Amino acid sequence: FGKSDVGVKDQSTATKNTLSPDYLINLDHGDPTLFEPYWRKLGDKCTVVIRGNESMSYFADPSSFCWFLEPRLSDAIQSLHRVVGNAAVEDRYIVVGTGSSQLYQAALYALTSPGGAEPVNVVCAAPYYSTYKEATEYLSSGLYKWEGDAYTFDKEGAYIELITSPNNPDGTIREAVVNRGDGKLIYDLAYYWPQYTPITSQTDYDVTLFTFSKCTGHAGSRIGWALVKDKEVAQKMIKFMEINSIGVSKESQLRAAKILGVISEDCQNFRAVGSENFFEYAQRLMSERWEKLRDAVKNNPSLSLPKYPQEFCNFTGKYTEPHPGFAWLKYKESVDLRDLLRSQKIITRGGERFGADANHVRISMLSPEDVFNLFLARLSSLE
Ligand code: PMP
Asked: For the Alliinase C-terminal domain, which residue ranges apply (predicted)?
């Protein structure tokens, strides 16, 4: 999470207090606390009771391919993807992880082989999710090596390309850019949910990562999942999980299974009863926030935001605009925008961390409401 967190108040408790004028606004991480009011409103509908004698074993289902995956979570994941229509689940292996962060490492392990002459190059089109670089480099692995921007990659040999769509930090829809036969692709679809972007197709990639964190906002449960086509790749990912953490918390999996199950059911019943399901709620919230942000930015000629095309969303049956989880804000001149905003007590992540320029920052759109409103007020008064 980085040094900038030190001394900053927990954002999730911020709503309980009135924010003082010198409150330090931390929009560095995408901590998705904005959906909390929705889950509070559901009350006990999502409560899970786990007795002292339950879920004690390392195993969730010893006879199953992924022996630490709770069958209820596997069912809930499949049913949610079918309802939303964002990914094919038929004949896919599901691997659960402690967040999709752990599955990223598992996928790198699975797509490389020990004993290779050179570490496999790992690339991603800039601006890229800054944690990829950090997670790829921090163990100084002999299996793989961070090579940075996929647009400028020209080395021979095997490579792995990461594709984040919609992209973190800039919200764009992406495809692979290197497109050579010796490449393996990892698709990170953390934000391919209706509240962030129109669902335009059912994706069907070799390795796809999803996370509970961004789908529902339950980042604290640390649950992610991979949809994997190839049995050997899935087997190697499971092996990684076995060595790395002997599986994934059963308590977290059961909570995720309950919540994802409730969403699927509500989405299926929605058309019949006409009440607002989670994605409808979340989409409305994101759209309101983006409208307010665009209004604030409009009044400052030095600032700009990316524009996104409207597309038909197969899930909502309407034309909708993307409302990314992060705002990729640009300053017209070559100013260090992160420093400029820091002087207004707004912490953001600077463009260089994403392989871009310092006149860009990434701003989380996922904070509690009062933090977001204070951010808008400070942004509006920026000279
Ligand atoms: N991929 C992307 C693109 C993300 O933005 C994030 C969270 N910031 C992750 C993966 C990691 O999510 P998790 O909480 O599942 O580890």
From this structure: 25-382
Nearest alpha carbon to residue 376 among 307, 289, 284:
289
How many other β-carbons are positioned within 10 Å of the β-carbon of residue 178? Answer: 17
Q: Is 203 in the pocket of ligand 1 (CB under 6 A)?
A: no
| pLDDT at residue 140 tops 70 | yes
Confidence at residue 21, expressed as pLDDT on a 0 to 100 scale: 87
Report the distance separating Cα 239 and Cα 107, nearest Å: 11
- Model-level pTM? 0.94
Task: State yes or no: pLDDT of 2 exceeds 70.
Answer: no
Testing ligand 1's pocket by substitution, the residue of 214, 221, 225, 252 carrying the most ligand atoms inside 8 A of its CB is 214
Tell me the C-alpha distance between 5 and 2, whole Å: 6
Residue 15 has pLDDT above 80, yes or no: no
- Residue 343 CA to ligand 1 center (angstroms) comes to 28
Q: What are phi and psi of 195, to 5 degrees?
A: -70, -20
Report the separation in Å between the CA atom of 64 and the middle of ligand 1, taken as the mean of its atom positions.
27
pLDDT level of residue 273 (50, 70, 90 thresholds): low
Atom of ligand 1 nearest to the CA of 104: 10
Report CA-CA distances (Å) from 379 to 21, 127, 374. 14, 23, 9
- Two tokens, residue 54: 């339950």
246 burial via Cβ count (<10 Å: 0-12, 13-18, 19+): exposed
pLDDT at residue 17, as a whole number: 55
